[in-house]
Specification:
The protein is mainly α. It has one domain: 2-Layer Sandwich (Zincin-like), CATH 3.30.2010.20. Strands 1-3-2 form a three-stranded mixed beta sheet. The N and C termini lie far apart (34 Å). The mean pLDDT is 87. Pfam families: Zincin_1. InterPro entries: Zincin_1, Zincin_1_sf. This is Putative Zn-dependent protease with MMP-like domain.
Length: 135
């Protein structure tokens, strides 16, 4: 029997490592197209982000893309700042615990790939349609 008394929750660094592994596992050409995106891991979205997303519960937001998607860049020239993907550790951990049927690495990869979809210019409905077709 596993003794859980010596276990700790994965840290921000653990999440960053898992996100990097998920990114590195992306097939070409997706990895190259997403290559300039910075990945950041925080415990939660800040208050300003939650207000912008019209969310009160910080556990509702597992990830966020911030930047100009690659489809809009050609007409606008270079992006004024690097595109960023935020992964939120505590909401992802909460989802992982609630689901109990999928590994943490898989959930982190799912959130990361979803946010990369926004980097490619896809909206949530388009991403969900692609995800539904992959099942």
């Amino acid at each position: 029997m596993t003794d859980w008394t010596d276990q700790t929750a994965p840290s921000l660094d653990d999440f960053a490592r898992l996100a990097r592994e998920a990114f590195d596992a992306l097939p070409e050409p997706f990895r190259s197209l997403a290559g300039d995106v910075l990945i950041r891991v925080d415990d939660f979205a800040d208050e300003e982000t939650l207000a912008m997303m019209e969310m009160e519960d910080p556990f509702e937001l597992t990830g966020l893309y911030h930047g100009v998607d690659i489809g809009l860049r050609d007409g606008m020239g270079p992006a004024p700042e690097a595109s960023r993907i935020f992964l939120y550790r505590r909401p992802i951990l909460d989802e992982w615990c609630e689901r109990g049927d999928v590994g943490l690495s898989e959930i982190i990869a799912h959130v990361l790939i979803h946010e990369i979809g926004h980097h490619f210019g896809l909206d949530d409905d388009q991403i969900h349609h692609i995800e539904d077709g992959a099942d």
